[in-house]
Amino acid sequence: MTLVGTAKLASAVSEGGGLGVVSAGRMDVETFERELEDAIAMTDKPLGVNIPVGRNIEWMKAIFDMALQRNVKIVLIGGGDPKPWSPLVKAAGKLLGIVVASPQQAAKAEATGADLVIAESIEAGGRTSRDEISGVTLIPATADRISVPLVAAGGIVDGRGLAAALALGADAVQMGTRFMLAKESPLHQNAWEAMLASDITDTLVVGNHHRMGRRVLHSAASEKVRQREDDASPEEMIEMLSGEWSRQGLHLGNLQQGLIACGQGVGLIHEVLPAADIIANAVRQAEQHLQRAFSIVRNPKRSSTRCE
Ligand SMILES: Cc1cc2nc3c(=O)[nH]c(=O)nc-3n(C[C@H](O)[C@H](O)[C@H](O)COP(=O)(O)O)c2cc1C
Question: What's the pLDDT tens digit per position in 169-209?
């Protein structure tokens, strides 16, 4: 996650049994290199990197060049056409993951050489697709189209989401919003407090008219973007959705001028926890919910019990 997937958070996720991902988004090459090296120093477990496809080709080249020489297991490409970059990742012997938002894109990603596909549904925080497909339909439809492992992303913040995604045909999940509220995340206290006070109805998508859709938390700043977006020029939109507005929200906790990108699942999160506890709780809760579901399928007439 851009501005969130730092060395500290990524290494804590890997130490906790997940795959921590260091994000290159909005970082210059030197800063990303430092974060990546710090992450590698903080854990001997596997790590991934996420490189969002941008318009700055020189930056992309330098980022790929640096990351592919480092000890990372998986390179995830999000937010644009992965084709020019996929061969570089494969040639470096890394696993390639491609982020998609529809089954059609997933099939193309596999044809491009993806070793795994991340299908991100409309509930997700950050960039959204105009296809607006929910996870309940995106996951099985994508599972039907690809043979490589499928990672479900969007709205998954606990063991219930994990159980549901697996039951729908995913092989793993990617959680973004949940780890924004991990103890090791770089978010400002104000951003945490605003997120903890939010319900599942408290996010909105801004920037859709300009093909720059982002799911963000309701705030004075996101309201400002919504009011201006119909008449805004593309340059103005880029400025509003740029790293600086997000940095203000996420790192400085300025909710008047700063955006907090996050998913609908924010309304299901009630505490800040260490990353390792988030993972352990999700696994335990998923097991309970899968057992509960199994017993209902086996014996639909019995009175159903709720679990954690
Ligand atoms: C603040 C923020 C920044 C993100 N940045 C990126 C990014 O740089 N590249 C990317 O592929 N996905 C990015 N995402 C999407 C996440 O990787 C993940 O797929 C998404 O958060 C999953 O949905 P969830 O937020 O409902 O858990 C971002 C999400 C958030 C909330």
Answer: 999 999 999 999 999 999 999 999 999 999 999 999 999 88
Q: Give one DSSP letter per residue of the chain, joined into a string.
A: -TTT--HHHHHHHHHTTS-EEEE-TT--HHHHHHHHHHHHHH-SS-EEEEEE--S-HHHHHHHHHHHTTSS-SEEEEESS--TTTHHHHHHTT-EEEEEESSHHHHHHHHHHT-SEEEEE-TT-SEE--TT---HHHHHHHHHHH-SS-EEEESS--SHHHHHHHHHTT-SEEE-SHHHHTBTTS---HHHHHHHHT--TTSEEEE-GGGT--EEEE-SHHHHHHHHHHTT--HHHHHHHTSHHHHHHHHTT--TTT---B--GGGGG----B-HHHHHHHHHHHHHHHHHHHHHHHH-TTSPP----
Quote the pLDDT of residue 63: 97
Task: List all residues whose CB is within 6 A of at least one atom of ligand 1.
Answer: 1-2, 4, 23, 25, 50, 52, 78-79, 99, 120, 123-126, 153-156, 174-177, 261-263, 265
Tell me the pTM: 0.96
Spell out the domains of the chain, with CATH numbers in brackets. Answer: 7-186 (3.20.20.70), 189-265 (no CATH)
Q: Is 90 exceeded by the pLDDT of residue 125?
A: yes
Distance 202 CA to ligand 1 centre (A): 17
| 28-32, 140-144, 210-214, 304-308, range with the lowest pLDDT | 304-308
